Amino acid sequence: MELFFTQLTNGLAVGGIYALIALGYTMVYGVLKLINFAHGDLFTIGAYLGLTLLASLGLTGYVGTAGGLLFLALMVMGLVGIIGILLDRAAYKPLRNSPRLSAVVSALGASIVFSNTIMLVYGPSPKVYPQGLLPTHVFYLFGLPVPIMRIIILATSLFLMIGLYVFIQKTRTGTAIRAAAIDQGAARLMGINVDRVIMLVFFIGPALGGAAGLMVGLHYGQINFTMGWIYGLKAFTAAILGGIGNIPGAMVGGLLLGVIESMGAAYISNAWKDAIAFFVLILILIVRPTGLLGERVAEKI
Amino acid sequence: MKKILFMLIGVSLLFAGPVFSSDTIKIGLMCPLTGSWASEGKDMRQIVELLAGQVNEEGGLLGKQVEIVVADDGGDPRTAALAAQRLASRGIVGVIGTYGSSVTEASQNIYAATNTLQIANGSTSVRLTEKGLPYFFRTCPRDDEQGRVAVEAMLEKGYKRIAILHDSTTYARGLADEARTLLADADAQVVFFDALTPGEQDYTTILTQIRRDEPDVVFFTGYYPEAGMLLRQKMEMGLNVPFIGGDANNNPDLVKIAGNRAAKGFRFLSPPVPQDLPSPVAQDFLAAYIEKYGQAPGSIWAVLAGDGFRVLAKAIAETGSTETATLAAYLKNDLQAFPGLTGMINFDEKGDRIGDVYRVYEVDEEGNFILQM
After folding, report:
1. Closest by CA position to A175, among listed A186, A160, A163, A187
2. pLDDT value at residue B267
3. Is-contact A112 A243, C-beta < 8 A?
């Protein structure tokens, strides 16, 4: 039983990060029906920018660790968001009226450009975040050891996801995003500036991916320029699992994928972890082709 | 018709070699300049180019300048096959490289089909030299040699319950299997045998599994980025089992990733690093390398590429020939106790390097690698 709960917390912590990245895939897909394959690399950029800013500004020295990290997170999210908008301008906007396949190829190209740019700028060897910034406390829940960072990661992910959900559901801008996701033409006729909505989507998605990258860097310590590939693939899977285009779906899919992986590794075989996760994905897609929460087609995004 | 066409292409390739190589002696270098092993590839390139520069300053080989033709294998078997085809058609005398066993394996047949001499530097998987390819050599030792030293080191410490963790690459799986076979005959028990997925960040799941099986020691046969993460997360989880690693952990980045506290006490097997070799050849090389590039090479594997270049250059100079068969015969039969950067070099009939190369290293509290035996 102890093993089960330990693996559950392991899975939820990883799943929270998958979910955060999955949101970026799902938002862009919701509005543009485009799989932004460069999203995993935006996540990597977030991790690297966080390291650069942390090292060069010495923020935590001025305003304390917590304040410094919060400020750092906002800066990383802002910068990665801007890179997201530039990505859209450079790689996707010129192809808006082309066949969908062209945009997918362009996305793959952007992904290669990003990961190689990171390699050329930062070098090919793995980079390491400074240690000792985060609490390493172990917290006891019903006698089970749970490192406090696991809880902080999960809580931060949930906070960002719920914040996004409220923003999409309750604000005027959020309504505009939902409208553009349902029918761009009709939204335009209703006076919604669809281009601005797309820009916003390309800001928020990458910003969340960047935040996930920063969290990975801070918690795991080691970052490398290829890590966006694995995380991107997993997050993409999570988005499909939950029902792509659906925001709560991405959250559920991410957490679920993390838990399936760690349970599969724990009770079946670690080497087959990914195979088990993809097998479950296939099973779910056979039963529910739109993904777990994909039924609300009208409310895409 | 097709057969005739292939034969024509083959024949034209045979003649193409000498035509291309008339003004310089071209030596190929296949290394991972992109992908996750890119830092190894960069060092390999710098080392081989430095050594080639030294040879050229001393008048080159057979009165000609040496030219290094570099091809990026991306650390990926598919890219490697393309790189090998490109190199093989450039009129090279031989090729140095590459690092990962699965990557080398993808290129072997292409070089064999074009009669190109290949000297791999980091590919330790046993089966690479068991195929009977006449022109394949390696300057690194094989996994079965390493497995033997690892098992000896673990038994010597009195460990009874042993966990083996690999990462499903040709190399790591080969080493893990070898160790498991050897342990079957020894007074010890393999309590855990599984693989992790390289390139991930979170290994707490597998560490939780290892904790459940209560081993005395964990033998990790994979690469340093994962080893660093494992050590770090092991400490964070409060898991105190000692780790011993395979030779792909001989990289200072391991300590950077894990942090000094987590890396302390980690032991790994490796051929000796150049700093630990008293030979004047190695010391001269190291001084020249640091002078040119500002820091010492990151790992032993890149230095073994340097040894690959040096034996090839020696063979060309001694035989006065650039014929693959002549060079291969020289390396197998006539090269005796050649003073390499990593110690004495001899090759056996299979093209494997002969001799006891492996040592055990331990990481101290400052993160230095200390030679144990």
Report:
1. A187
2. 93
3. no
Question: pLDDT tens digit string along B150-175?
Answer: 998 899 899 999 999 999 888 899 89
ipTM value greater than 0.85: no
Q: How far is CA B115 from CA A211, A215, B102, B322, in A?
A: 52, 51, 20, 12
A216–B201 C-beta distance less than 8 A: yes
The answer as to whether A45 is a domain residue is yes
Q: Parallel, antiparallel, or unpaired: how do β-strands B267-270 and B65-72 relate?
A: unpaired
| Inter-chain CB proximity A270 and B257 less than 8 Å | no
Task: Report how far residue B41's alpha carbon sits from residue A161's, in angstroms, rounded to the nearest whole number.
Answer: 41
Residue from A5, A10, A14, A17 whose CB has the most chain B CBs within 10 Å, to mutate: A10
Give the integer Cα–Cα distance in Å for A92 and B211: 48
**Residue-range definition of the domain harbouring residue A106:** 2-126+140-299
**Helices B280-293, B38-57: inter-axial angle, 10-degree rounding:** 110
| CA-based nearest residue in chain B for residue A4 | B208
Q: Spell out the domains of chain B, with CATH numbers in brackets.
A: 2-141+277-345 (3.40.50.2300), 144-270 (3.40.50.2300)
Using DSSP bridges, classify how beta strands A127-128 and A222-223 pair: parallel, antiparallel or unpaired.
antiparallel
Inside any domain, residue A209: yes
CA distances from B342 to B249, B299, B301 (A): 17, 12, 10
Six token digits for residue A37: 């394959």
Report the Cα B197 to chain-centroid distance in Å. 21
Please check the confidence at residue A115 and state whether its pLDDT lies above 80.
Answer: yes
Q: Which of A112, A257, A270, A273 is the best mutation test for B, with the most CBs of B within 10 A?
A: A270
pLDDT digits (tens, 9 = 90+) for B192-248: 999 998 888 889 889 988 998 999 999 999 999 899 999 999 988 888 899 999 988
Q: With CB atoms and an 8 Å threshold, state whether A136 touches B236.
A: yes
Buried b / exposed e along B232-263 (16+ C-beta atoms within 10 A): bbbbbbebebebbbbbbbbbbbbbbbbbeebb
Q: Chain A within 8 Å of B259 (Cβ-Cβ)?
A: yes
Residue A241 lies in a domain: yes
Instruction: Supply A16's token pair.
Output: 């929270």
- CATH number reported for the structural domain that contains residue A195 in this entry: 1.10.3470
Is position A93 within any domain? yes
Out of A7, A124, A128, the one facing B42 most closely (by C-beta) is: A124
Taking the whole predicted model, whether its pTM rises above 0.80 is answered as no
- Domain count along chain A: 1
Both structure tokens of B226: 């994962």
The secondary structure of chain A as a DSSP string is: -HHHHHHHHHHHHHHHHHHHHHHHHHHHHHHH----TTHHHHHHHHHHHHHHHHHHH-HHHHHHHHHHHHHHHHHHHHHHHHHHHHHIIIIIGGGTTS-HHHHHHHHHHHHHHHHHHHHHHH-SS-EEPPSSSS---EEEETTEEEEHHHHHHHHHHHHHHHHHHHHHHHSHHHHHHHHHHH-HHHHHHTT--HHHHHHHHHHHHHHHHHHHHHHHHHHH-EE-TTHHHHHHHHHHHHHHHH-TT-HHHHHHHHHHHHHHHHHHHHHT-STTHHHHHHHHHHHHHHH-TT-TTTT-GGG--
